[in-house]
Amino acid sequence: MPSIDRKYQEWRAAYVRAWGDMLYIDYNKKGEVEQKNAITCSEAIGYGMLISVLMRNQQDFDGLLRWFLHFKNANGLCSWQQIDDKNHRTYLNAPEGGSNSATDGDIDIATSLFYAARVWGRSPGGHFDYRQIAVPLCKAIWDHEINHYTFMPTLGDWVKVPERPVSAMGYSGGAEWGQEASYTDVTRPSDFILSGFLTFYNEDTERSPQWAKVMDAIIATVQHQLRLNPTGLIADFLKLAANGYFEPAIKKILESDNDKDPRIQPTLMAQSAFFGSLSEINAGYHLNGQRIRDRTYSDMSFTAPASVVMWAMRHPNQVRIQNEMQELESDKSYFGDSIQLLCLLQSRDPRGF
């Protein structure tokens, strides 16, 4: 089985790129992104910073941090997407929405900064004080990427939650107000990064009560999904329903048409049991556990997280799934390779630092 160090070196050689004294993660080597000249995104920068601090590579971490600081938007968050402007021989934000934020990237960047503060404190020479960068970023995430009525993550700072009084019956949704009305009450489970929010709760002490409410809201939503789907599978996007619960979005939202806290253990157990019952893990399932018809192949971005869930819950078939993950050939995909490496690092260092 290849060592984590070898996997890391392969990943670093394939995806880490330099621009001046900055580094970025090349997430579009194959030109598969809709914006053909896109080179990176905030998600990729967040993955890169997490991987770098977990591998104790401070030089790479600081290079990626410089990228974040260079492309920080007016709200203090990471601009979502950068492109290669060959006409002007420079890199800049994508023209359509590139300066908006995407919540998951900011959560990962802030989490990595708190990890770095614990591991290193400051950059060599003291140029960067990681904690002093992380705390304002946490404030920006709270101010611009969390719905202050539901305490759930929004899709990014481009989603404007209505500023209106909350009735005695509580927040009933704001989908009828605002230009981004169709997204106001939508949340994305890939942003349910409880390890990140727990880090914020412990480190961003000024907002600890708010982060506790965010974690409670996410856990309650995940518990509700388990009642809807005993497989433990969760839809790509959820929307606030009239009953006050977040439920699977019926219509396409963004990407596609298939869209140790004891409270979370039943969901992890259900997911572990589901994946452990499969002869192989394919690249997409309906919430009832049926494989999506054309997803007859395996993909690292599905197999690796399933492996970690089974490892965490000590499922008896975890070794078989972990071996499947190790034997799965890399498709040279930034996403799958990054997810696999992060999962391997998670299982090696569960506390993160």
UniProtKB/TrEMBL annotation:
InterPro entries: 6-hairpin_glycosidase_sf, 6hp_glycosidase-like_sf, Glyco_hydro_8. Keywords: Glycosidase, Hydrolase. The keyword Hydrolase applies. GO terms for biological process: carbohydrate metabolic process. GO terms for molecular function: hydrolase activity, hydrolyzing O-glycosyl compounds. The keyword Nucleotidyltransferase does not apply. It holds the Pfam family Glyco_hydro_8. Belongs to the glycosyl hydrolase 8 (cellulase D) family. This is Cellulase.
